[in-house]
Design goal:
Dna Topoisomerase Vi A Subunit, Chain: A, domain 2; 5-stranded mixed sheet; two-stranded antiparallel sheet; binds zinc ion
């Protein structure tokens, strides 16, 4: 290759980011190199600060500053009796962007998948059961688009709630979301409709 080794090393690191192909990595690396020194040091500092300061909220699994709770768990104006269960933090962010839902969240951080050897112990389910019981939660909205894994996780969640004698209303998005899709790809109007048209699961 006719390019300097350290430039290629930078391209290589950028290419490891999700959704970045080699051409984009090359373009971004070039852009960074041609940026001012202050822009570069600000970016490097933001990455380091975020890595050092951001933790996972020990109540819901969202991102939080240091050892604190996340902004949603800290906010007394949120409806404290409803939990929306999502697969990932990106899904939580997508729902927050609609500015429609005002309850709490629970991030599972994965779904049960026998094929990939992911069972209930690999996802953040225990805390959800504990929270639902202790905080007297009235409704759990399962906001995971349908798939084999989503269904397996839902059944396990339902079973665990039942085993713990927890009386909570379970609701699920009925239609509108792509099967096996991700919430963060869904437009806001569809997402709002999914919330409003959710159905009770017995
Ligand atoms: Zn939280």
């Amino acid at each position: 290759m006719v390019l300097p080794k350290s430039f290629l090393a930078l391209v290589n690191e950028i290419e490891k980011l999700p959704g970045i192909g080699s051409k984009t990595a090359f373009r971004l690396a070039l852009h960074l190199l041609l940026s001012s020194d202050s822009n570069i040091s600000n970016l490097a500092k933001a990455i380091t600060d975020a890595k050092n300061n951001i933790r996972i909220c020990h109540i819901c699994g969202n991102l939080a500053e240091s050892d604190d709770l996340c902004e949603i768990c800290k906010d007394p104006r949120r409806n404290q009796s409803v939990i929306c269960v999502v697969e990932t933090i990106q899904d939580l962010v997508a729902i927050e962007r609609t500015d429609h839902y005002k309850g709490l969240y629970h991030v599972l951080g994965g779904l049960i998948s026998p094929v990939e050897n992911i069972d209930e112990n690999d996802i953040n389910l225990d805390l959800l059961i504990k929270r639902t019981k202790e905080k007297n939660i009235k409704e759990i909205i399962y906001a995971v688009p349908r798939s084999l894994e989503a269904d397996a996780t839902f059944i396990m969640m339902k079973q665990r709630l039942r085993d713990s004698n927890i009386d909570v209303k379970l609701t699920r998005f009925a239609t509108g979301l792509p099967v096996g899709g991700h919430i963060d790809y869904v437009d806001s109007i569809t997402l709002i409709q999914s919330f409003d048209n959710r159905v009770s699961v017995e």
